[in-house]
Give the backbone structure.
Amino acid sequence: MIEMNVLLIYPPFPLGEGMGKIIRSPPLSLMQLAAMIPDHQVEILDMNLNPYITIDELENKIKKFDLVGMSCMTSQIKIVLNLCRIAKRNGVTTIVGGFHPSLVPDFIKYPSIDYTVRGEGEYALKEFVEGVDTRDILGLSYKGNGNGGYHHNEPRPLIPDLDVLPYPRKDLLNYSKYHYLWVPADVIESSRGCPYDCSFCCVTKFYCRTYRVKSPLRVMKELTQVPKGTKLIFFVDDNFTLDPKRVDKICDLLIEYGFNKRLMFVCQSRVDFVTKNPELIKKMSKAGFLCFFLGFESLKQMSLDKMKKQISTHQARKAVKICHDNKILVFGAFIIGNIGETKEDTLQNIKHI
């Protein structure tokens, strides 16, 4: 096996500088990918930390590598294509993964993109770097047919046991610039996917409405690896609280091992979980949970029903009260201009918010 020099790039989000003053999160997906290829030289470039890097600086860095890989969401298409062009004019192979190329497979059509990975990328990248024939790498798309066409290999099954994944390569990043509300922060993934089917959400398409978890003990082991000085952990799970029994066990361990004494926790949840489990919310507060990210989306029931959100406006208000009664902050997500909503509806939503 030939050792490769691999550069994994986290492209900047449009207007990301403003948001970065409030929240700047380390690119967990790239750290996880890096962990899959320990026998190769890997560097991570988080462009959100340096949005003013020049084209010349990028070019001088990229041309030193054999392979440039990056994750792409739809809002990042332009910058990703520009980065791929820089790589290609320097003879560097390009591979792109993430939500956009997974849900829009023909993204491979752009001349500057050599390969895309559809779905979970850990084992696809590992096989690619280790020299497995591209025709045999599940989930890989690549140019072919000799006439500007492209080929999509069969989809790769989702990883059944997340505990088998290696620990993310946190050593590849300088954590001094990552924070949530100016508090030194790190991110941990304890599950993937969500079985709900909200009409606006790409997560359900990407993970095919599945839900897989890491064991509570694995979650504790990952907490022991957070960088020194970290004060806050954001669980990036799409639906951290889906399984109340699992949440209860994680809370027990956070308290037993004393993590709640030195760390604060933030997670994404649903308002119906909060309203149905007030005692568990109380326990989560004791275990160190400081803030819930809740998807309210709208405070108009017609809009919620159209989105297949499966919650009510009454639950939304009750959930906020339960959180506040337990000293848990609420970070609310809303969608402005839902289908069927008028300008007056939008203004009324803002008033209720």
Summary: The chain has a mean pLDDT of 94. The first strand starts at residue 5 and ends at 10.
